[in-house]
Write a structure and sequence with these properties.
It contains no helices and seven strands. With about 120 residues, it is mainly beta. Strands 1, 2, 3, 4, 5, 6 and 7 form a seven-stranded antiparallel sheet that branches.
């Protein structure tokens, strides 16, 4: 019940957006969590956007974007299908993160980056 997928990014990133392709013929209401905790399978971490998201693809394999505003520091991204006794079918997950660069005068500059996770 309420199947989930936890992705370990191997380092903490300042995540600003999670992009997902869900495969399936019916809608999937999904919550997206980002954070550093593995307690409760990561479901206690920050929830991004205005959940749940209906990621109904109807076999079209279109990227669905979930914003984390403001960006959230996290080592884990968790997708959880809500109110379902069926599987969570995920094709691809990618995320955008922000890199904070310290400048010699003490100010900071933020540059947007994108990193895709391919679990093969």
């Amino acid at each position: 019940r309420n199947p989930w997928l936890q992705i370990d990014l191997k380092a903490a990133y300042l995540v600003s957006r999670v992009r997902v392709i869900i495969f399936g013929s019916t809608g999937q209401n999904v919550n997206v969590y980002v954070g550093n905790s593995v307690t409760n399978n990561g479901l206690n971490n920050h929830i991004c956007g205005s959940p749940p998201f209906n990621l109904n693809t109807r076999f079209d394999e279109i990227w669905r974007n979930v914003s984390c505003s403001p960006p959230v520091w996290g080592k884990y991204i968790v997708l959880q299908r809500i109110m379902a006794s069926h599987y969570l079918e995920v094709c691809e997950v990618a995320f955008n993160y922000e890199l904070e660069i310290a400048i010699l005068d003490g100010s900071t500059d933020v540059e947007g980056m994108s990193y895709e996770v391919d679990e093969g």
